[in-house]
Every structure is written in C-alpha cells, then in structure tokens.
Amino acid sequence: MNWLKSTLASVAGTQEPIYGPEAFRSVARQTEETPYTELARDDLRWIAHQYTNVETQVFYVMGDDGTLAMAQIIYSNIAGIHTTAQFTSKIFNLAGDAPHNWHSDPLSNFMFDESMHSFGADNLAVQLSEDGESYSIKSAVNEDSLVNLTFKRTSPGFVVGKDGTSYYGTDAQNPWGSMSHAFWPRCAVEGTITTQEKTYDLTGRGMFIHALQGMKPHHAAARWNFINLQTPTYSAIMMEFTTPPSYGSTVVNVGCIVKDGEIIYAGSTNSAAHTETIQDQESDWPEPKQIKCVWEGKSKNGDEVRAELDAALGKRLDRIDVMAEVPGFIKTIAGSVAGTRPYIFQYAPQEKLTLKLKVGDTEVTEEGSMFSEATFIS
What we know:
single chain; mainly beta; AttH-like fold; 14-stranded antiparallel beta sheet; 11-stranded antiparallel beta sheet; disordered N terminus; golgi apparatus; transport
C-alpha cells in the first residue's frame, strides 16, 4: 500500500495538508495596480518547466456554418523524469445523434523551436508567425482528423495582471506551484479538418488560450468554469477556478470583453454561478443546467463596464470521465486517497444567447454562440 501510494502520488497525487489561503497568491492581487497586460510575441513562448506541470495550447473554433471544433497540444512533465506530449482534436456533433469526432494521440519526437515560440512533432507543426499575429496548426497525426488551420488574432491578446499567474506556496519568494493563462480572445479562423467522412470548412471565429499548471493539476484546482461567448461584435471570455481546501478554496476568475482591435475590459472582478443544477448519477457531481456570468470593472479610459450572461445550458454536449483509461483499482484508490474524481461537462446551447453590455452610459445587447465547460476534480 505504501508503494502504491507513492506511485500514485507521482501520477494522481495524494491529498495535501491544509496550508490555508495565505499560501496562495491570486493573480487578482496584481490587478490592483495592473488590470491586464497586452501580449507581445515573446510573451507566447512555451515554458516547459523541468518539474511536475501541465502546459497546453488550446484552439477553439466556431465555424460560420455552425461547426464547433477544438484542437489542443498537451505537454506534461511528471516529477522531472518523464515528459509526454499529446495532440487532441474534436469536432462536436451538435445534433447529439452520433459520437463526436474526437481523437487524442500521443506525439513522437516532439520538440520546440530554438526560440520556444513553436512546437513540432512527427506529423505535427504548430507555428507562431514572425509578426506574432497568427498561429498555423497542421496535423496528420491521426488519419481521421487531418488538421490545417490558421488563427489570426483580431483583438489584442492579454494576460490579467502583470504576468497572468497565481502562485502557490508558504514562501512568497519561492513558490512551489503556479497557474497562468494567456488569451487571444477573438480570432479570425481559416482552414479545415478532414475526417474519413468529410472535410469541415472551419472558416469563422476562434479563440486561443496558452495555459500552464505548474504543479499537479488537482492540487492546483478543485473546480473550473470556462465560458467562450462570441457575438458578431464582441467576445466575452471567462476562466474561473477554485483552489482545493489546502489553499482556502479560493476562487480566481479572469476574463474579458473585447471587440475587433480593442480590449473593452479585462480583469479579475468577475463571477460565474451555477443557478440551477441536477445531480448526475454517473459522476455524482452537481451538473449545471443554468449559469449566470458577470464581468465587471473599468475600461482603459475609466468607464464603468458591466456585462451579463444569464443562460440555460440546454442539453449537455458531452461528459468526459478524465480517468476513464486509468485502471479500475488505481482509479478507486485515487478517489479515496486523493479525493480525485475528475469530470468535464461541455455545453453549446443551440439557441442564440444574449450578452448584455453597459459601458459608461451606453447599453447594448447582442446575441451570440457559446461554448462552455464545467469541470469538477476533487
């Protein structure tokens, strides 16, 4: 049992002591002086820490024809001794009458370019352009998902605060963990994903996130909410996580309201609430059915900004058991020893949702499409 616990700690991890909220420094503290920082090309480098961490780049697409898709690189390091990389792609079946076209494939011979801006592997290249304005994603890793996409940002990219990072640890000068997110909230997308059945034209709108969890993921966060709302004029993005009790169950919420060429608001004074839930029998988590999101702060010129989304989530798009491929006995012990039971609930309501936005004395409402996730870990 002791051997199993130590092995499990390397992969899933055992429960941490209660350090308290004072062992966690939220990125929200940075926003008191610097609400957000616009991204330059050099801010988009891969970090590739040499200790336990998970680093991802995620590209979300909302096609003009209604197609919803995503592509993701997952680069992970376990205890500084084992590094893996995975490429995941997903085309959602919005009708719900067939499985999603989902693939997650291990990568071979993966590497970064010399400047750490681009990532490559056998049959895969994800490259940041020289001007720092666009990404190209090309993958033939899986013959049922041939990816050829270009993401060009149409609004500034940003991190909340100075560096977009929250820090974990009892010594503020030497944190033992971190969590960070960098966003391109509004992008123009061109290209295709080709499956064995058809070629999907993904011309449309997209968003991009570069995220780093610089510690065991379930030690960093117990729950997540993610909102990606795209309207013809605006993009409303929200990423919220709650730390485990080890760090005081602290809520961190970063988000923005942008339009082409302009960040209207970005900061950490936002909220997300599941206003209606049902108990999901398979996962034993409270599955959200209705969500209310509020973005609140000031624009660069000092105007008060408030945006609100109050929406029924509709039929669940997918429920992902993150540990589905973990052997059953390990999964059971992971849940009992570490309190870890990770599930992701995904939604994309078929009806248009309304964003209510007030900037200073000007009020507007606009309908758009949303993709959202609610993740329960521990």
